[in-house]
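Hi all, posting the design record for the shared folder.

TITLE: backbone redesign
STEP: 1 of 1
STRUCTURE INPUT:
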């Protein structure tokens, strides 16, 4: 599988796209007024503690307080409380720095206390960011874990000898008092590259500590890398054959970062300066235009529908135009197989997280069901974001959970519709007229004429067929209806007021 990374920047937006076999599978977007927070370290102040949900709210200097759960509290915060408390709630092993979900948070934190926290989840909708006190600094090959001597190796390798060799190597070159985890991309690098990054990460941690000790009150003490360097750090592996950047700043930033850690990769970085825009050159702009569409067509002629609710994302698979040739079961299987690959791609591309329920088309063959499950697992293995999935239920449903650390691209690119308020539907003209009918029945205007302002679609419905609906309402409610079309109104909005001109005419007659 060939991979490419594209960087496109304008004054209003910076985008990074990962292509696999020339098809976009991941998109990262950053805007001047919307920087990412995940990875940032803050000195925060505890504003409230909620024992009922075992959580605390931390002021880190942003508009909304951050949320800290008891399971994300570093055990080292308890060291001042004494060994008896530690043993009572945890049986804490300091050498392994074990998480401590059972410790009551009110025993750990106090209101007004200042602590270091790191953002693990972006603010989403009305919720503030989620934070942890278990600080870590990610590098290209390693992750630094302060205040511990723990050494870990990525779970992507099950080679016991390789894991042991890497652990021994890191233990020999790292200083005391800090731990490291070898990332997947670091499984093949040399000792020299490890040494360089260890020095870089330790220097960054020392600067963060110095910043945290200066002054008082909530403040940012360490900012995560910008989108350009962050994407290179996390996605630029040996499988990436080319990296394109269409701006000098990004091009130089990439080279400067690679020269320190992986100078051999610099030759794969290309400064793109053709007239055709970069994303158009690789034919991915159309893919991105369809990014928020509810319906996604498949190569087989079938399609999937993607719908979000408050609790989950529902994905429905349909045969669509794929009518097959002779065998219904084979047609359904091919549609489901095609959908499996596209669903996994869309999860990555749209950055969908949380609970996802996929409704595959029912298959009678147990062998075909197993093939679809295997296809989904194989496609999900390509996703770097942590995820898990169930097998197909007897109803053809598959449940997927995918880690959600930032808003989906749909939330990033769009606002909730002010007309339907996220429902996705508006009242039909027939329903609006039924509501008008009920309001007229409740009214007591003491006037022979009423002015009714409605949307053009509602007005057209009332006046069709020789104003049949209008005359019916007039007869029922004993009012003369003066219908006024108002394009400023939404389709399900209307105004009913007495006709003042009619009232004046009645007074003149008297």
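Okay, here is what came back for every position:
SEQUENCE:
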């Amino acid at each position: 599988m060939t991979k490419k990374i594209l960087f496109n920047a304008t004054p209003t937006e910076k985008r990074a796209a990962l292509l696999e076999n020339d098809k976009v599978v991941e998109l990262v977007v950053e805007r001047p007024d919307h920087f990412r927070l995940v990875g940032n370290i803050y000195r925060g102040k505890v504003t409230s503690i909620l024992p009922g949900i075992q959580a605390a709210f931390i002021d880190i200097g942003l508009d909304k307080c951050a949320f800290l759960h008891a399971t994300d509290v570093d055990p080292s915060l308890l060291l001042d409380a004494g060994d008896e408390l530690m043993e009572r709630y945890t049986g804490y092993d300091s050498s392994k720095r074990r998480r401590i979900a059972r410790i009551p948070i009110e025993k750990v934190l106090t209101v007004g206390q200042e602590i270091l926290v790191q953002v693990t989840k972006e603010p989403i909708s009305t919720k503030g960011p989620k934070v942890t006190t278990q600080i870590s600094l990610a590098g290209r090959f390693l992750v630094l874990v302060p205040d511990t001597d723990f050494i870990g190796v990525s779970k992507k390798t099950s080679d016991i000898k390789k894991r042991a060799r890497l652990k021994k190597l890191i233990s020999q070159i790292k200083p005391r008092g800090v731990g490291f985890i070898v990332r997947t991309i670091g499984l093949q690098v040399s000792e020299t590259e490890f040494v360089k990054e260890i020095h870089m990460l330790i220097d960054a941690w020392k600067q963060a500590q110095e910043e945290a000790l200066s002054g008082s009150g909530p403040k940012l003490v360490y900012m995560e890398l910008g989108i350009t360097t962050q994407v290179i750090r996390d996605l630029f592996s040996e499988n990436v054959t080319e990296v394109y950047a269409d701006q000098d700043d990004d091009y130089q930033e990439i080279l400067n970062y690679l020269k320190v850690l992986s100078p051999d990769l610099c030759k794969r970085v290309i400064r793109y300066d053709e007239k055709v825009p970069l994303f158009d050159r690789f034919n991915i702009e159309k893919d991105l235009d369809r990014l928020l569409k509810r319906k996604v067509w498949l190569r087989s002629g079938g399609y999937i529908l993607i719908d979000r609710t408050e609790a989950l994302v529902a994905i429905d698979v349909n045969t669509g135009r794929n009518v097959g040739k002779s065998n219904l079961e084979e047609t359904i299987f091919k549609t489901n197989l095609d959908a499996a690959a596209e669903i996994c791609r869309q999860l990555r591309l749209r950055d969908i997280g949380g609970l996802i329920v996929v409704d595959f088309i029912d298959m009678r063959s147990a062998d075909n069901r197993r093939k679809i499950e295997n296809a989904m697992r194989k496609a999900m293995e390509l996703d770097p974001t942590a995820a898990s999935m169930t097998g197909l239920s007897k109803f053809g449903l598959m449940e997927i959970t995918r880690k959600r650390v930032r808003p989906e691209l749909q939330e990033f690119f769009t606002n909730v519709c002010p007309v339907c308020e996220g429902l996705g539907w508006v009242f039909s003209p027939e329903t609006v007229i039924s509501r008008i009918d009920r309001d007229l029945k409740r009214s007591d205007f003491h006037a022979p004429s009423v002015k009714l302002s409605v949307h053009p679609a509602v007005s057209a419905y009332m006046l069709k067929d020789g104003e049949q609906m209008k005359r019916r309402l007039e007869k029922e409610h004993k009012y003369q209806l003066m219908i006024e079309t108002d394009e400023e109104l939404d389709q399900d909005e209307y105004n009913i007021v007495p006709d003042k001109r009619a009232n004046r005419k009645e007074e003149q007659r008297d």
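COMMENT: Residues 78-87, 90-101, 504-510 have pLDDT under 50 and may be disordered.
Let me know if anyone wants the other runs.
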